[in-house]
Specification:
Blueprint lengths: L1 H22 L5 E4 L2 E4 H33 L1 H42 L14
Antiparallel strand pairs: 1-2
């Protein structure tokens, strides 16, 4: 819930900033070819052009990320396997030190296991 509130406040801030930039756009001048566009029309045109560039950059970065992900998948699997092996080695090295902590858990598990009632026999029907 806190992330939603933080994201909402961030979007509200950027919305307010965009509104202020569109209201106070008197000093923005966009040059297209030989003509200069200023005022609100220039601000709108500049915003549309900049937004279009950001969309193109986002699409290109997504394709590059997918391509690099496919290329490095083998290396990523090797890294994951190495991390798993390191985790197993670390647990094997630490496990004798964790034995005093495991004894109370083992006793608790045995007590819970003994208090269970035996399962009822399954009802089987004769074949027709």
């Amino acid at each position: 819930m806190k992330k939603v509130i933080a994201l909402t406040l961030l979007l509200l801030f950027f919305g307010m900033l965009a509104a202020w930039m569109s209201i106070d756009a008197n000093d923005l001048v966009v040059t297209v070819g030989d003509s200069d566009l200023d005022g609100p029309l220039g601000a709108l045109l500049g915003t549309v052009i900049a937004g279009g560039v950001f969309v193109i950059v986002a699409v290109v970065m997504t394709f590059v990320a997918v391509l690099v992900g496919f290329m490095m998948a083998g290396v990523g699997m090797l890294v994951i396997m190495a991390l798993a092996l390191a985790a197993v080695a670390a647990m094997a090295a630490v496990s004798p030190l964790l034995l005093p902590l495991l004894i109370p858990f083992g006793i608790y598990w045995l007590m819970k296991r003994r208090s269970r009632k035996p399962a009822a026999p399954a009802l089987e029907h004769a074949p027709v």
